[in-house]
From TrEMBL:
Name used for this protein in its record: Rieske 2Fe-2S domain-containing protein
Provenance organism: Carboxydichorda subterranea
Cofactors named for this entry: [2Fe-2S] cluster
InterPro entries, per the entry: Rieske_2Fe-2S, Rieske_2Fe-2S_sf, Rieske_Fe-S_prot, Rieske_Fe-S_prot_C
Keywords recorded for this protein, A-Z: 2Fe-2S, Disulfide bond, Iron, Iron-sulfur, Membrane, Metal-binding, Transmembrane, Transmembrane helix
Length: 192
């Protein structure tokens, strides 16, 4: 009788997967492991993310600053070449202020001239007076014509001028090239 029951039990155990040596038998018999993290562990993980995030931001900012340093920039202003626009924008007898470049662009019948606005007496900024059609220094009263020639006051010489070129129909003023002169001459004008 016992010998007949043994194969029957064995067959049932094998069907349930509980037979010794059956693959996966041990795994199926264990309950699933639930991973529970303590608040302390969660805090550590959070702090680790914050630390790595901060480090990433720091290096990203440093890299961006380094790249910006080497990136070619369009520099405009005093000391550089300035494209002030097409010749047609400056009618004859117009005087136009360019504060960034510290000059007046004066268009005369002979051509264009960029006059450095620094008074040749003691260096005050010389304004163009539309009502007088002259440059008139507010400090000690020196007066200059639209070509920069000094005609009154203590100024010892005309206003200095900057190199002007015509490039593709545009006037380009080199504010890094300033010329002194004893007298204003037509050759100081750039034909346009
Ligand atoms: S600084 Fe212009 S007149 Fe003296």
């Amino acid at each position: 009788m016992a010998t007949e029951e043994q194969p029957a039990r064995k067959a049932k155990a094998s069907a349930d997967g509980r037979e010794a040596g059956a693959p996966g038998a041990a795994r199926r018999s264990l309950p699933p492991v639930e991973r529970v993290e303590s608040p302390e562990v969660k805090r550590r993980i959070f702090m680790r993310w914050v630390m790595w995030g901060s480090a990433f931001l720091f290096f990203a900012q440093s890299a961006a600053a380094s790249l910006a340093m080497f990136w070619p920039r369009k520099v405009v202003g005093f000391g550089t070449k300035m494209d002030v626009g097409p010749v047609s924008a400056f009618p004859v007898n117009s005087v136009t202020k360019f504060a960034q470049g510290k000059f007046w662009l004066s268009r005369t019948p002979q051509g264009a001239i960029a006059l450095y606005w620094r008074c040749t007496h003691l260096g005050c900024t010389v304004p163009w007076r539309e009502d007088e059609q002259l440059f008139h220094c507010p400090c000690h009263g020196s007066i200059y014509e639209r070509n920069g020639q000094n005609i009154a006051g203590p100024a010892p010489r005309p206003l200095d001028y900057m190199t002007v070129e015509v490039v593709n129909g545009h006037l380009v003023v080199n504010t890094g090239e300033i010329h002194e002169r004893a007298v204003a001459l037509p050759q100081h004008m750039t034909p346009v």
